[in-house]
Queue: 2 jobs
Job 1
Amino acid sequence: MLEYAWLIPVFPFLAFMLIGLLPKRTLGWEDGGGYAIGGAVGAFVLSMLVIWDVLNGKTLTDDSVKTTWLVIGDSVSVTFGIWIDQLTAIMLLVISVVGTLVVIYSGGYMHEEGVGRRRYYAEIMLFISVMYGLVIASNCLEMFIFWGLVGLCSYLLIGFWYEKPSAASAAKRAFIVTRVGDIMFMAGLIILFKYVGNLDFSTLFAAGVARDAFASDPNMLTLATALIFGGAIGKSAQFPLHEWLPDAMEGPTTVSALIHAATMVKAGIYMTARTYPLLVLTPDSLLFVAIIGGVTALLAATVALAANDIKRVLAYSTISQLGYMTLALGAGGYLFIHAHEANGYAAATFHMMNHGFFKALLFLCAGSVIHAVGTNDMRLMGGLRKKMPITSITMLIGALAIAGLPPLSGFWSKDEVLAAVYSAGEFDWTFFVLWALGIGTAFMTAFYMFRMWFLTFSGEPRSEVHAHESPKIMTVPLMILAGLAVVSGFALFIGDGFKSLVGDSIGIHESEPVLDIAVEIFTDPLTYVSLVLAMVGIVVAYRVYYLPGFDRAVFARGVPGAFQRALENRWYISKFYDDFAYKVWYGFSVVADKFDRYVIDGIVNGFAYLGANSGTVMRKGQSGDVRRYTSLVVVGIVLLILFMVYILPWMTGERQWFWGWF
Amino acid sequence: MIPIEYWIIFSSLLFAIGAYGVLTRKNAIVVLMSIEVMLNAANVNLVAFSSYHTTLHGDSDASGQAFALFSIAIAAAEVAVGLAIILSVYRRYQTIDVDKINILRW
């Protein structure tokens, strides 16, 4: 079965082609929605078959069929193929489940969009297709191509409502900011290619190959891995390139769900996890990864505290959770090096999977709410619990999951992440600091998620809207995802346990009795620290945003007020970028413009004037007077003869000047 | 045998006369005739050097004379073309004064 895995991206791609090319009247239900669901389900079924094989211990890595894509010179060639291991299987699971449910949900959500739906479904299908391609790629270059296509598709979908200037600029911002990361990624690949001479996973990740290739200057390997992680900083919206993701909320909510849960931002985490065999060779890069992750997690969580746009809260929570995954990957590398454990790596991938489900759920719930009330602003919502029972309950499940309350999925994976970071502290004290950041983030996560839930669903309606529950086509995916958000955490205990499964993809197989895993979690005091903090967060949110009698005006004055304004302005990072772009870059552009206008153009125009004016002067010589021409010819010949006879011999020293003439 | 200098002086004079005619006369036909004179000066040179070849190099070579024949043929063709041009110029402008025919210019 595994050798047919390359068909997975083909299904959505076919759907993309059909939706794009078929005549309009043959598109059928929802202007192509039927084809889209067909493509998504086809890929889903195939993915499930592949995942089943992987769960049964089969993988297709070094020995997969490869095709030569590019031959450089006589010896160097780039081969493309497929690479299916446990990590790929997890990504396939997330993409296929979330992708399929999002497409189905779109059938209700995008119903009022009219003719735009055709473009929407075509782009969604391409998006899902290239994301599948990205996770099954067996070569860094192949991955990079899909990586770029993922960026393109997110650009197209974020700018879906391109008539709106804010959507158009958000799309451009997403594309340009992630491109900064892409360039770093490419630079890292170029360094790797220069030293190793091959970008195939089977060569790059083979034991000792990279280490030997970089034996003469190991610093270049550190640079290469750090640059490759730079690609993930852009794609997975890590600090300082995270500001594009909240702006990406300008797209349809379904697109946000897809970007946040399955496709775009997970690509960065996946890529970091995929290049793990290289990353663990360079502890400095790992520390860099972990610090970026920890800082991002905390920073984004603080901004989410004060956001008023429901999607923006979710966007910042995504950034924060992605920070967790990055942090776990960085810490896991230290565990891999020093203790030969897969804990951090497994925690990151586990959190990636769980986050995929509950974040898709939260976004689709938010979409359902927005669909009902027609605004993103939580200050205009409230009291929706009675009117939208299914949405409110499923969203509550999502919020509990992300807040990390047992037995929901977020609890297990967040606990694994924090435990891994804490145990990495044994090898570098920085991880204790990062662990503290993570704990703080856990508290804030619980608080802002419940702030959002209370503001949206409880209390009295704060605006005149006649909200109603969404149609079945939207609520059924919500219920499925809510179910997954509850149970996906128990993947930790399936078979030999999640850790031993994922550990295989980086060559660590530690099978631990699943009961031990549970005992380990519940006897560790740190588990209770994060749990208590999460519950305190929920209680604080309950006090402030649910119970009456709390004067929220306290947030508008004094020190809390200054804090609040800083948070509402997203720590001024976005403003800094805008100012930077406007002032510094604009100034530079003005200088460049002047240089172009006056120096470059001046030279070009100068030559043009020279040609034109010299022509005006010289054409006078062309008088049309035949006798003048002949006279000039004769004079010329005479001068030439004089030159040959008298001047040239003098110049060559055969005759003296003047006296030698005679 | 007449020394070769004589021939060279003769042909130079002939050439100079032709050139003078080209430069000074306005009538296009006379200009054409002067050109013929210049061409024939060159022919005289060719034939003279050819006949002196034996004296100068010890063997005979008739290529100079052959070139003179070529030159005469070309001159005949050139006169035919030149007269035809002059004829059509006359038809167009009612004049063959080369000073007045100066429209082939900027």
Note: The interface with chain B takes residues 619-620, 622-627, 630-631, 634 of chain A (CB under 8 Å).
Job 2
Amino acid sequence: MFKLRDLSINFLGIKLENPFILSASPSTDELEIVINGLEAGWAGAILKTTSVEENPVPLKYPMMSSFGNYYRRVLGLGNIDLISKYHIDEVEKRVKILKERFPEKLIAASIMGSKKEDWQNLVYRLKKANVDLIECSFSCPQGSMGEAPGRMLAQSIEATEKVTRWVKEAAEDTPVLIKITPQVTDIVEVARAVKKGGADGITASNTIPSLLGIDIYNFEPYPSVFGVSSYSGLSGNAIKPITLRTIAEIKRNVDIIISGNGGAYSSRDAIEIMLVGASNVQFCTLPMVYGFRVIEELKSGLSHYLEEMNFKSPSDIVGKTLEKIKSNDELPIIEVKAKIDKEKCIGCDLCFISCNNGGHMAIEIKENRIPEVNIEKCVGCALCMQVCPVDAISMNEKMNEKEVVFVKR
Amino acid sequence: MTDFKGNNILEKMMHEAERCLFCFDAPCEKACPINLPISTFIYMIRNKNFYGAYEKIRESHPMINIAGFVCPEEILCETECTRSKIDSPIKIRELHNFLTLNFSKNQNLSLPEFKYEDIAIIGGGPASLSCAFFLRELGYKTHIFVDKEIGGIPLEEISNYRLPEEVIKRDLDFLKNNFIYKLNLKKVKSIKDLGEGFKAIFIGIGLGDEIKLDIPGIKKDGVFYARGLLRDLKNGKDISFGNRIGVIGGGNVAFEIANSLKIRFKEKEIFIIYRRGMKDLRCYPEELERAKNLGVNFYFQTSPIEVFGDLKIEGLKVQQVSLKEVEGEKRRRFELIDKSEFIIPLDNIIIAIGQKIEDGAFPEIEKENGLIKVDENFMTNINGVFAGGDCVNGGQTVTRAAGEGKIAAHKIHEYLRRV
């Protein structure tokens, strides 16, 4: 009934009806599921990573585990999944079917190979099936193939550049994205290698190698596969801060298109990922946990944001934050003081105990449990602001007679 | 992981624990008469350290099982809960019960050697048992003097519908086995009765007598006093009632008897007759709600004049009352209204207008308004003689009495170690 803003973007020459696409994941591993997702309103899908027919995919179950709290049970999701059990023969069929059925949507495929001919063979067959875009998984944490099995391709600068070149050589004018891992010493080096190799863009990034937890009564790690387990790839809202940093760091140093991926749970999260430089946002854990219907919130939230901020297109917000990201030594030294809104304060005194046990002993309690900031002692660290359950604390910042207020919105 | 009805409540309780803010110097703990470490035990529940949480409350309150059932949280801890400024208070008593019902397996205590003096404790209710509990923990030998058995009002008078017997037994067994050095079944009415050998004495005798109503006809058969009746009913004594029963009074005892009779005899009509208005009632809000739900009837602003009838009771003659707010007075002042008399037809009348210390008890101890007078250290006019609980506060909650017993125990320790 209500008219949304035009959310369409141009991504590497492909028109997307909105910036939200399904990433290579269990959500894109079955034809019927992908169809449901695209019908729900997602702008496109990257089919789960496939390989050549000879490559065995020994999947292990149970493959998932998670952590969270009672308000958000799956804050972080870990999996010991591998690439798709479906090989290229099946995936090329699906690309054709999907492309025919959804000519307006982005139909992409993700690939992983070992030898040069495997990579290139995969590309040729997908091109023949009329795929819109090819993503190369250089970063599945649960094992990789090729020269150093068990090690992620994107952890080697040389291999990254070399394989990128092979793929792009075969892909010609079909756009290629390289999906990298944040688990490297210098993400910028990797991004440069991708660019040098000739890829059109980077998918930043992927799940993060992790160990989800341990049953302390029988010492079994999660997810317990008959008593044992291996490291998981961590996804979900928990990794969003790492994704933001990864994308920002690449975008500040390398001129390359980025598809954001990792940790977005809402339209606001997606907007943040675009603000640090992603042109679009991929989703995996969110629809896995709450279903494809979450696209409604994503579209409506982005539309209202553009409206409110007076932007014409989602592309206008890409990278808006980058100029505001500095190194620590570039930051100004200013005067900061905490300020407590006494109307909002409910008197739990959590700020008091934090400041006194982990801050600068700058909060005192006056009558009726109302805390008060001792301006002399307050250095403005903002710990109190983090623990306040009702957002009653703001930070007043001053520099050269100018004042700004830092609040969490 | 169930509630006392057997429903699985683990998820619900975890969710509730998640809501707690863990306020610094938590207001709920301050509102608790025994300062139960509420935020600490909820923090432990949140982190699934259920046994640790249980131990935390077990060592802080001598009657946690009983308190879990009878504590009026809606006028104590939960009224002060900071969370209610965001949405609604944390269900503290439910969390508390969740622990006592499910995680009480650890009975392995570490108590100090007996290293201090013998202390006499007169009475066996919550205040006395609490005093013994905390004194034993400090290393004193606790000698309880009680007429029959320990347990006090929770055991003798609180109805089963509010407090199941096995719940009382859990606390009493725990206290008997660990915290009472010697239990003396002996009626003590004066300090002299104790003999020599005690360095300090605690009196927690409660309120043994009921305040009598002095109106014509009150001696007729079929008129009862509430607490005696509660005791008789709890002991299983067979008492026959007519169809219409009037309860005179507006406190917890009046509601306890009215509600328990209504639960027992659904078909009988029960009336609470109170000379003030509904908002002047001195019962817990929960009990008033329960009475309303059960279908107990009310006569407010109604003062009894005479028990009416020849051989058996036919009714209660009452007179209407007007209430006026008077500046400087806490309660509304009441005046009888002329020519407003009428008769409430009744078959039985139960009087629940208040209680007092047993006549003639402890003549050497100074009293005030019918209660034992103590200073801020809960010490009476006699050095080394302390008192607490209903006989001092006029009849409050189990936890209030236990809280006073706790303070008295620490004051006794201070008194003896300083001397």
Note: Chain B touches chain A at residues 14-15, 18, 21-25, 27, 82, 85-86 (CB under 8 Å).
